[in-house]
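Regression report. Comparing outputs from two consecutive submissions.

Submission 1:
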Amino acid sequence: MKRVILLLAAVAAAAAASAQSSGRGWGGLLMDKDVLMPGDMVELSQTQFNFGTARAMAMAGAFTSLGADLSSMSINPAGLGMYRHSDISITPMMSFARSKTNAPEYGRNSRDRFSMANIGVAINAYEGSGSLVSLNIGFGYNRLADFNYDYSFQRGGQRATVGDVYSRQLYWGGVSKNDFYTNGGSGNWIWPDDPQYWNAMLAYRGFLIDQEDPKNPKSWKPTWIGNNAEMGHFTELQSRGSVGEYTLSVGANINNKIYIGASLGIQSVYQRKYIDYGEEYYYPGTGPDGYGNSGLDYQLLWWKLNQSVIVEGTGVNFKAGIVYRPTTNLRLGAAIHTPTYYSLDRKFQSAAAGLAYANNHVDPNVTPDGKGYISTANDPNMTSPVLLDDGPNSWSFVSPTRLMFGASYTFGQRGVISVDYERDWYNGIRIKDNPSGLDSQSWYNDSFRDNYKGANIVRVGAEFKPLPVLALRAGFGYSGSMFKDDVSPSSPLFTKTTYYGAGVGFVLGRGVLLDIAYQYVSSKTPDYYLFYVWDEEGSADSAVYSTEVKRHNVALTLGFRF
């Protein structure tokens, strides 16, 4: 399928902005959902290590220098070398997500989900008396990212409509409404191969925009919306999915001083997004229903758009790490994670609906019902085709390189405190393959270099054992923004995350352990638009929004040592 989009490199990479030439551009939450944008690749790369076993979750994942925990396989596999026994554990988790936006709520703003945070086994494969004290092998699964959240909001008193964006798109592309039909406007409805115009076609089909002169592309306008119309819009986004990692790891203990390890990680990626958007119009000075006598022959009452995007695939990476114990109580750790190579399939489809009212029935191509309403309810062309990016037209890219350092200090058998620092180079994300007909890979890669930087993550965890069979734990973590200081996304992207953890561990019997953890996670977006557009004719945009998603995670680990 031939697909052509021209992108403006000067716009922030995560902004989902497109442009046809210098001085022209559009973007925002509603735009460019038919392609994988740089901001989408960043979101898929935002893996966190605040999941895993309940012990690791309670201590905020500060395990670069700690070990003997199955979470180590995804953080620093050198920790696997600290096992002096075999271990198997399972960690189910409940997550309760709540969201809030700087606008009145609309619809559902919560999401509860059961998932598996960790499951794995560590096998003590070798015990020796020489320099190699022990060798351990591990197999496991760790959850790395949670994409399950809902948020919605509404706002009135708006002047711009998303139809302003679609009108400019068609104008810039030199597209006539006759191009949407066979036989130059007199035949059947057709969908072009290029999906960048599909939503604009739905806007035309649903009465949001029209071309006053079929020979003049510049005459595309929201003609059924009066200049005096008061407008409100509502938005709802539903996201489902996660990133999970299956690991094969090996760890070794050398002289009880040096621990080394390596992991091969296979990631499973799935994200499904539904974006529902609607506009409503009220005409002051008209009848009690808000329409009639507006000066328009036909006036739009409301318009709605739904977009569905599904991304799924796999990723492969390699991790290596070391822990050095200079004294009995002090441990120093370091780990490197290679970029994860992702291969992804993508599916997109959109649908729209519109309702209008005829004050004067002057167009023979428009058929109001007996009450004067014009609806798309029975129009089969209000749903686009399904766009599939798979096989030779799939997507692939590499995520950031990650480098971790950690230090921990143990207080005999009573407790431990651990501090981690992590650096993720988001400016190093690189696209490796994309569907044919799209802009070259260099635009994507330049966007990452120009707009992103390395992000800093800090994690602190502590454990105290008042009794040999009881452990009390707490932790804190913070992940900073990956954008350069003068760049902000115009589409929602969580750029700052803070998490707090607490938990308790019990020794139930010989070789049987029970750990419980609670974790509070807050993820925030900078300001973003629903839509914006600019060119030589001027600009139009939605209000500016910001969203925060708060998660309450409760996990339980049941472990067996043998």
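Submission 2:
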Amino acid sequence: MQDKLSGTLPNEKYDSIIIGSGVGGLSAAICLAREGQKVLVLEQHDVPGGWCHSFYLNGYRFTPGVHYVGLLEKGQSSCELYEGLGIANDIAFYRMNPKGFDHCWIGNERFDYSANWEDFKDDLITRFPNEKKGITKYLTLVRNIGRQLQIIPTIRGLWQQLTVPFRTKHMGKYSPFTLKRVINWHVKDPLLQNILNIQFGNHGLPPAKASFIMHAAIMCHYAEGGFYPMGGGGALVKAMTNKIKAYKGVIKTSTAVNRILIEGEKHKKAIGVELASGEKIFADRVISNADPDTTYLNLIGQEHLSKKLLNKLSKTKYSCTSLMLFLTVDMDVKKAGLDSGNIWRIPNKDLDTINADMQKVDILEGEEFSGMFISCTSLKDPISFDGRYHTIEAITYINYDAFAEFKDEAIERTPKYLEFKEQIIQKFLVTLEKVIPGITANIVHKDLGTPMTNEYYLNTTRGNVYGTEKSLKHIGPFAYKSKSEIENMYMCGASIVSHGVAGAGYSGVQTAGAILGRRQDDLLSLEKDQDLRIFEAEDDSNYPEWMTKKIEVKKARLTSGVDAFAKGEK
């Protein structure tokens, strides 16, 4: 079987065709190809990875969808995922600032999320001594939810099934409630509520709409710190695609799927795909890593869907969309106070009010953005830093309808669109100046990703960043299932298990398990002698020689005259 990212596809039938090369699709491909299946992964973009892919501007790397990963220590779920996929030996991570992997900037107030759960709790109690009882009770509840979520995939046999309600009693009790309701039951101080709510950006919903269970899961995911992949998200993708190819799977980029081929009148069955080129490729089953609307309405067509599924699709809401500013700057950002930790910046207001402001259609209203996430990737990934230029990603969530007049434009945008982007960039910079004074004067390159960018490169409905909206109506038993109502048609990705690098990755394993008749934990126990490497982003004293040498080589590029900005390319 042909094993490369370009060229003519072999004229043969596959066991599984996977549409989309996000980490969900790649995880499924690894599990299936490892079992001996003929697997074909089709990606419409010119690089694999979906949100996890990396790209370069003037030689400097950016990753739009990977800003940190949690639970990477031995025995924790993300580590077990990478070990189980057989890629742990091929990747490495940096531990972000353990004293503040997340920095809360709330008006003039500051608070850091420590990577130690007990330290985090003590810091909160020290700051809010009158809320000690509520803080302790709330964080204990969050930890219990986190532990109970880990139980679900491991349940075996009738007895364990019967005891599930007792072993997951906190999940059952609190699953009907929003984040705001549960937080407000426990603590009353508005600033404390905002601190505990601030990771809402990791699911994109305000506290009044967000599922408490989902938010608790995210808090637990990062409870012991955040980690950034060495080489950015693209390094994860490379490790995964190499593993697929090692098992003789085929990955095709720049290959868009026009439709999923369905046969049968009453009994529907997926039999393959038709490419944008008109070529038809057949398979025993089809797996879509795209979101439900893209999969069912665009690729399959409503004529093949039941009334029940059409009704569900009509009620499905999608997560927020985003603006993402990519900057290369010629300045010492450490002197400005940045480190490897993320910055969540919001005004000192109720978060539901802030979110409503972020969702206004007129996004140019106001001098600065209400909410912003700031990540300095060259500090998270020291091996990428050349000693001079830092890379920064700044993100805010917006209403998709702010770009309604541009939704039908091709990739070559109109002057009006480009002018609109420039106005947005200026508003970003006004906001960033409050965090990094002097940054505007030191920008050597800038680019802005918009909802149109998300749609074009990632084929997401309304430019969404997290798949389906993670409200009470779209998670757990109400989420879309890996096995569809159409025979031999499956799904994976952010709308199935959960979003994020880990959530999407596990969705692929779950889908492969449904196809193979295997349990998730069985599929992740097949690889041996896997060891995930973790280094400290804030301390280079224990870096191995090979890493130190790479950093030196990177810095030597500038001294040898290899400087993308030496001629003033700004």
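Expected: both submissions complete independently.
Actual: both completed, but the second showed a warning that disappeared on reload.
Relevant detail on submission 2: The CA atoms of residues 386 and 552 lie 8 Å apart.
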